[in-house]
Amino acid sequence: MSVAETTDTRPPSEAEPDRPGPAGPATAQQRGWRGRLAAVAAVLGGTVLIAVHATFYGHWLIDDSAITFAYSRNLADGFGPVLQPGAAPVEGYSNPTWMVLIALGKLVGLFDHGTLFGVNDQILFPKALALLCCAAILVLFYFGAKVLSRRPALITFVAGAALAAIPSFVIWCFSGLENSFYALTVAAIAVVIVRAVHSGRLLDTQIAIGTGLISMLAALTRPDGIIYAGAYPIAVLLFLKRELLGRSVRAVVLSVAGFAVPYGAYMVFRWFEFGRLVPNTAVAKGQEPPTIEDLARPGDIVSYVGWLVVAVAVACLVVLLVRPSRLRTGLIALMVPFGLTVVAYIVLEFDWMGQLRFATPVWTLGAFGGAIVVVEALAAARLRGRIVLACLLVVALVSSVSGLYDQGKSYRANVKTAFCIVAERDARTINGLADILKLPDSAQVGLIDLGGTSLGSRIRVLDLAGLGDKQVADYLHESDVTGVRNYVFNQEKPELITFIGSWITTLGFDKDPRFESEYETIFVNPPIGNLTVDSRNWVSYHVRRDLVDDAKLAELKAYTQKTLPPLLELNKTAGLRGCANIQPGFKAAA
């Protein structure tokens, strides 16, 4: 059978994968109930495993997620997509769909209202939403596996267990960022294509437009998601038949239109609302074209899960691809979106947050495909082959799980830039200083860690890292740190400035004589010990000199000396802790 035949309608006799022979009504009904129960058990079992692993990282959310939360709050409150009420519109987020989902949570009272089950809903709701996305991914896996195998429940559970075992997947899905919903969109694209190819409906109008719309959701969840708009056209080309050329062209046009029309509408909105064709975050981060060296980046993914377990999965794939079958056709179809996940990972810049944050789609489809090929290879092998394959799997999994556990344990001990740490360290300190100085809400603080501070600061924030400020983003895109300093000293002149880590050196403020002459230092906690661990406490706070006399400066110093040291000491060992609901103006007791 040619794989191209799957683009045409199949005879009724081939409409389903191989099944046992005819059975009476009672037997068929029993099997139906058993199948449904197995499906529910597989989805729930995999979801529970993922949830258990997620608890390993406590209440931690990455601070960058709170940037999206701030936009979601203001959108839901009627201020529009802005970082703070009344601020200029700057697209400091790159995940519109996730931002809207969080805003909907606020509108229905599940986010930014206080606590849920005794936990800050700013923490609990994003994590609950992520878990719901993971469950939906497993549901999709089941329906995808159902057309390829007589063991869809087993494949679903194995795939769920594999995702649960990968710290990179769990960490970033439950970080407060958009990874879980992004993974869901990619899984949906893959399953729709696999099922369409298997049923001979790849060229149907519903499939073409549906894949385009899902690809649009992926592209509006992460900028690199635009690559998945190519999944359907590539699949059509791969299974192209000459006599169906006209239908194929029409289907591709419909899919492209399904993607381009709503995505283009958002681009028009972006231009008129923000004055850019890309998110401000993309400008600040300065995505560069990939180099030849970047082609080796998939090796990072293979090393992360273990070379042996990948080798076993690839061997199983090769065995299943040797013989023509419906399963082979489905695997070829699945390799189209999976290949795009790898290409997207190669193209993206190295990410400072660690744990292969951009690999989430690779893990998603890799787990699904890996579960299919391993389960089906075991089923297809003779007894001796099963024994050999089972032994290889045990050895590979023992080695892989050990390495994955070390990865998760390492990250747990030193999570990156926690939302609660930033909010309680910077936002409440800034509020306290602003109150002592009697600053109006229109005053500004220049800062680096934007998320928690934008949620909790009562005064305006000036993002010196550029994510939330267009002018700074333009300077950083050109690596013009002198331009950043000129913008700060000559134009914005923020009343307060705070630095974290080595940013004061990175931006050259420590060498600029204007900083020393125009700003007075209130508090400094110098770099000591292990900078990887203690960088979250390497902070300094500064006030514009014209706002203070000796007495007022002494009052500011006394406030920070009283409130900051106990918190900084806690930060050394409690990066996984939660915090109270963060609202503008909250501060420590004087």
Structure description:
The protein contains 24 helices and seven strands. The chain has helices at 25-55, 63-76, 96-107, 121-146, 152-165, 167-173, 179-199, 205-219, 231-238, 245-274, 280-285, 298-305, 307-322, 326-347, 360-380, 383-413, 419-437, 451-456, 470-477, 481-492, 503-506, 513-518, 531-534, 550-571; strands at 115-116, 119-120, 444-447, 460-463, 496-500, 519-524, 539-544. The chain has a five-stranded mixed sheet. It has a two-stranded antiparallel ribbon with strand order 1-2. The radius of gyration is 27 Å and the shape is elongated.
Q: What is the spatial order of strands in the main beta sheet?
A: 4-3-5-7-6
Largest sheet entry: 5 strands, mixed
| Continuous helix count | 24
The pLDDT mean sits at 91
Shape: elongated
Helical residue percent?
A: 55-70%
- Approximate strand percentage: under 5%
Instruction: Provide the low-confidence segments as ranges.
Output: 1-21
- Structural class, from helix and strand content? mainly alpha
Distance N terminus to C terminus? 78 Å
Summarize the structure.
The protein is built from 24 helices and 7 strands. With 590 residues, it is mainly alpha-helical.
